[in-house]
């Protein structure tokens, strides 16, 4: 990853928020408590054995999605509420479930996505320090509830990139913003390892984990009018997360990495909703198609180690 000089004065703190933030915050808090109650009552204790490798045709798939507003499908024409099957949803999670059913699988879906969530408590605290609304994190509020899962998808990184650039805009990093970004990338990597390990410990034996790597947020439409330094910082954080925390998992047992970093479709404005940050129906559809392919194919390609998209912002 190319190192660059990033003047901190060029940053403006950015907090990408969904509409009706107060409603979502209250709803998600209630859902987290409800999920914890279900756990205490033993309602998630079933432990079926998952197949090793691709899903066995015609089998039952207990699919759990770990994510933030991407998992609920914010920006799609039909967004879903966390912890619901949402059969008509047009985000990638319900579309993935529908496509697997169409291929003959029996699918139960648990969508743990919490809008505004970040991967761990450290990023949650950092975001709140700079006035981000963050109502949960994957490790504390989602990971504990994957116990009966035979298929788990994970998408993290977007909210974390925004937290990092917001911190920079408020003076974090001092005279070494690049070093600050890299330290946060390392923290993300530590959290990611904790998350994947926790999923393995709690999910069904042989669970198939499909992770989406982090796209170059500096090249996405929502930052099209940002300064070059802002976009460079977002790029540095996203590329660092992808190359050091996510892509190396491709060699782990039963883990597939969907390479949205190096997929040209990720950067097409036609695949984004009006906020330029969340995909629209077409954007979510191509992500779902890749997840289904990763889950069912006898082999799935490893992510690319380098591509032009990683250095889109010179």
What is the topological layout?
Blueprint: H1 21-40, E1 60-66, H2 69-72, H3 92-102, E2 106-111, H4 121-129, H5 138-141, E3 151-155, H6 158-169, H7 177-202, E4 208-212, H8 228-246, E5 255-258, H9 281-296
Parallel strand pairs: 1-2, 1-3, 3-4, 4-5
Helix pairs in contact: 3-9, 4-6, 6-7, 6-8, 7-8
Structural descriptors:
five-stranded parallel sheet; 9 helices; single chain; disordered N terminus; 5 strands
**Terminus-to-terminus distance:** 12 Å
Rounded Rg: 18 Å
Q: How many beta-strand elements?
A: 5
Shape verdict = globular
Briefly, what CATH class?
Alpha Beta
Helix content: 25-40%
Determine the mean pLDDT.
87
Largest sheet: 5 strands, parallel
CATH homologous superfamily title: SGNH hydrolase
Return the structural class. alpha/beta
Compressed to H and E, one letter per element, the order equals HEHHEHHEHHEHEH
Number of domains: 1
Uncertain regions: pLDDT < 50 for 5+ in a row?
1-30, 33-52
The CATH architecture term is 3-Layer(aba) Sandwich
Helical segment tally? 9
**CATH topological fold name:** Rossmann fold
Beta-strand level of the residues, as a percent range?
5-15%
Strands side by side in the biggest sheet: 2-1-3-4-5
Would you write up a description of this structure?
With 314 residues, the chain is an alpha/beta fold. It has one domain (18-311): 3-Layer(aba) Sandwich (Rossmann fold). It is built from nine helices and five strands. It has helices at 21-40, 69-72, 92-102, 121-129, 138-141, 158-169, 177-202, 228-246, 281-296; strands at 60-66, 106-111, 151-155, 208-212, 255-258. The protein has a five-stranded parallel β-sheet. Strand 4 (208-212), helix 8 (228-246) and strand 5 (255-258) form a beta-alpha-beta unit.
